[in-house]
Write a structure and sequence with these properties.
0% strand, globular, 281 residues
Length: 281
């Protein structure tokens, strides 16, 4: 047990400077361009899914939450909202950068999330084009972005770093504990690695309304416990606390559930397709 705790602490401490640097850069982008991003996505019109998917790739604090409020007030379309949910990376990018992950892997993940978000966003808007033509705007929620990153660049970067490193430490400790007492093969079996059912499990984990979901999915992938397709499935459904805000702000429960299951279905489905492609080729 002592060895597991020491290894967990050492692994986590090594990540701290790199994680802080990654968050500092991300926070700089957030503080400089969040207002502009809100204006751009709000005025994107029929090109919303394209713009939303592109902006969603940058892990800005509260961007998916902001998009939720823009949708609740009907400033953006459902397709744009779904596109942003699917493309949002949450903590994945910072963790992978701090772990010195191969840039080609990061670009593949971001590319898939971008194209999946854009494609299904446009598809949803096309299917619903008639029902959304005369929808009314309601601006009363527009100023609520539920973002806690207003403490200054340095302090907010430090807070994000400490919060994330805490999740990483817990995830790493539990993973090391299970590996030591159970074995890595058993972990893979729990997540059904190399099985077509694995993306369905990962997509459920991704829906957890907290950055912990993206941390767990990313760490499991980096430790080799889950496959690339399963990782994609989990990261596609991970939009941070946005879904929680959706159920709080949008009073239409049926619509909220439809959005939830749509995101889940797309995430799991794309994960299965990637798994099949890897098995066949």
């Amino acid at each position: 047990m002592k060895e597991i705790i020491v290894d967990t602490l050492l692994d986590s401490v090594k990540l701290l400077p790199f994680l802080f640097l990654a968050f500092f850069i991300i926070e700089f982008i957030e503080h400089k361009f969040s207002k502009e991003a809100k204006k751009i996505v709000g005025k994107s019109g029929k090109f919303g899914p394209l713009v939303g998917s592109l902006l969603g790739l940058f892990p800005q604090c509260g961007f998916s939450v902001m998009a939720t409020n823009l949708y609740t007030t009907r400033i953006i379309t459902l397709g744009t909202l779904i596109a942003i949910y699917l493309s949002t990376s949450d903590e994945m990018l910072a963790i992978m950068l701090s772990n010195n992950t191969d840039i080609s892997v990061i670009l593949q993940l971001l590319g898939i999330k971008f194209f999946v978000g854009m494609f299904f966003g446009f598809l949803i808007d096309f299917v619903l084009r008639k029902s959304t033509k005369n929808q009314k705007l309601d601006y009363h929620l527009c100023k609520e972005d539920h973002c806690h990153c207003k403490d200054g660049l340095l302090l907010s970067s430090l807070k994000h770093t400490l919060n994330t490193i805490l999740f990483i430490m817990v995830a790493t400790f539990l993973l090391n504990l299970v590996i030591y007492y159970v074995g890595e093969d058993s972990i893979s079996k729990v997540f059904l690695k190399d099985s077509l059912l694995a993306p369905f499990i990962a997509s459920v984990v991704g829906l957890i309304p907290n950055c912990a979901s993206s941390v767990v999915i990313t760490q499991l992938y980096l430790d080799g416990a889950i496959s690339f397709g399963t990782t994609v499935a989990g990261l596609l459904t991970g939009s941070g606390v946005a879904l929680l805000v959706l159920f709080k702000s949008n009073k239409n429960l049926k619509e909220n559930l439809t959005i939830l299951f749509t995101v889940y279905g797309i995430g799991a489905g794309v994960g299965v397709v990637i798994e099949l492609f890897q098995l066949l080729f």
